[in-house]
């Protein structure tokens, strides 16, 4: 129990410290959070990470209210204000804009996240602050706080349970696979029996039991997953083990709380009749099996060769693997339907709905994972991502389509590390003069790709070198416009030789222009090939094809950006890459609250603009290959500074040769 308390506490501490509430004054000497008053959160000053805590709380509230409504689901639109209070958990006093029956309404609710030792993340409740609040019909009266259906409070203490309980059997089966997957043993363990079962109703069930497992001759490999004794004979070497397991089954998902295995103290007695540790009346008799098999004196009735250790084989009756008086026995268990060839975790709860999609995704993108463990992990990531995709889809104001791109099996953190890399330093080193905005009338749409000054979409690979691609893309366009020759230029030169920037760890186009001038120019892609990792600088000045004379800082006004672009060529920009990991097409238009215009993390290139079904957009060249987005391009709403695309617009300048 102690562990859960500590875990629960750690979760709270983590939450509270990320809320910024745990200061010297807010904790007692023991480090316990103290009761305190509300503190107002200034949404404009928060980092997006902190803001996400409140958005998460608001979304929890919406989710709970949607559990109650019979009509159209309520849709979260915007946080208006948030106050927080540390209790044994956190109270969020939230004012938010909510779409109720297609009407935008302001709701004022109290969302409570109570620390609950039994439930990771605690329990949530929501209550409207007044009875005439538009959200009031979907929350309960203040005195009878609505506890989220899915995270009900602890209902009862721990009780005994039978190993025949179907829930126990499924849990044991899941635990066995989990233990095998965590084991570095070469050989697979199979289940011999389940004992000391305790069951507790929590948010779902907590099961605690002891598993006795036996080593087999099957390798502990994915292809042997779910195999039992008849396919995996018990090995004569290896150790029988006893594993103490505590797990939670909630929302159709199993979560291991703790488990520990040690060699079993019970020694199998060869030749003995005590394989199930129950006294049998008659040696050699058939009293422990249920059916008379006609062979008196033979020990076949339980399908177990005696004279062997005590492992129980699969029972004859598959529908009732544990017949009534075999409480101590458990068969090795397989998952019915033979659906076990894809190595995906079964019983994976809500993820089950994404299995087909994951299989299609793997086929489409030729994904091969090195091990079962890796594949299972990637499936879980995929599943979480697909949930996010639904959310992004729901929240986009434009026509964007989000889905399983080739990056759909990466966590956001992995993705950030490998594919983003715009580093905005605190004290910006390069400053460039403001660009002159041409006083021209420009057409309704313009696409520089049609004018032979844009190279095909490139692929940065797993290197945070987007800034280098944004830079070369711009320089390629400038050179082609001024000197009528389109070169594909070298990003690797920048990754290796630009010492102002940080190679695969990120950089800035504004600094790269400066570095190119210092170096003496850019080589071609062909002469200085892209490797996608940091290497020693191999710059060769005699191979330089393009030199720069300076750079300019372009307006943040999107009308002026379009005028400049039409007259002068593609613009290097920084953008917040929110949801780009899952962009498939359409015109992206995320809300500002999710896509902070001040958090630029990706360098790309605007090559044109237009209007599609009434929506004005920018066409943006990305560097994630042409099999991402719209043939490698990202179309983003034009006109309201979406995702900060107008915050860092620059271009190199070149002289006529
Ligand atoms: C460009 O101009 C803006 C102000 O309009 C300024 O904040 C920014 O630092 C400038 N950037 C460069 C690289 O000169
Ligand atoms: C630099 O490039 C030139 C022209 O391709 C070549 O002749 C020379 O060997 C190169 N130098 C080095 C050090 O690679
Ligand atoms: C943007 O620039 C255009 C053209 O110079 C101007 O008419 C417009 O008022 C500017 N918009 C803002 C918000 O400054």
Automatic annotation (TrEMBL):
Question: Organism's domain of life?
Answer: Eukaryota
Q: Which residues form the signal peptide?
A: 1-18
Keyword annotations: Disulfide bond, Glycoprotein, Hydrolase, Protease, Signal, Thiol protease, Zymogen
Residue ranges annotated for the Cathepsin propeptide inhibitor domain, each copy included: 358-415
Bilayer-crossing regions: none
GO BP term, example: proteolysis
* Pfam families on file: Cystatin, Inhibitor_I29, Peptidase_C1
Q: Name one GO molecular function term.
A: cysteine-type endopeptidase inhibitor activity
Q: Does the keyword Transport apply?
A: no
InterPro entries, per database record: Cystatin_dom (IPR000010), Cystatin_sf (IPR046350), Papain-like_cys_pep_sf (IPR038765), Pept_cys_AS (IPR000169), Pept_his_AS (IPR025660), Peptidase_C1A (IPR013128), Peptidase_C1A_C (IPR000668), Peptidase_C1A_papain-like (IPR039417)
Q: Where is the Peptidase C1A papain C-terminal domain?
A: 442-653
Instruction: Give the Cystatin domain ranges.
Output: 153-262
PROSITE patterns xrefs? THIOL_PROTEASE_CYS (PS00139), THIOL_PROTEASE_HIS (PS00639)
Similarity field: Belongs to the peptidase C1 family.
* PANTHER family from the UniProt entry: CYSTEINE PROTEASE FAMILY C1-RELATED
- Name used for this protein in its record: Cathepsin L
- Can you name the source organism? Elysia crispata
